[in-house]
Design a protein that fits this description.
102 residues, alpha+beta, 3-stranded antiparallel beta sheet, 4 helices, 5 strands
Length: 102
């Protein structure tokens, strides 16, 4: 079974439908909890402990990519969704859109 980050990337590149149902994010017949940690680490300057973005955070970014970063942060905060930090945004979007392999 593929990890949730790879599935999100694949579905985004192929423009396949991703369904949000209750506390799950569904990729056809595979479902992951919204709060599932992905393999994408959060940018932290000077800290050694790793944190990972959640599947919900990445999907929210993809759905709101056209917003300015401050507006995106505000909307995510209003919905209690952890935000993607600005230093990670460009590289993460390039990965999720298939422009980068890592």
């Amino acid at each position: 079974m593929a990890d949730c980050l790879s599935l999100l990337r694949q579905y985004n590149i192929q423009k396949k439908e991703i369904v949000e149902r209750d506390d799950l994010i569904v990729f056809d017949n595979t479902a992951w909890p919204r709060n599932a940690r992905t393999n994408y680490t959060v940018y932290k300057s000077g800290q050694t402990a790793k944190e990972y973005y959640t599947l919900e955070s990445l999907l929210f970014l993809l759905k709101n990519v056209g917003l300015s970063h401050p507006m995106y942060v505000q909307r995510a905060g209003n919905q209690n969704i952890p935000v993607i930090k600005f230093p990670d945004r460009r590289g993460l979007l390039a990965y999720l859109n298939g422009e980068l392999d890592t």
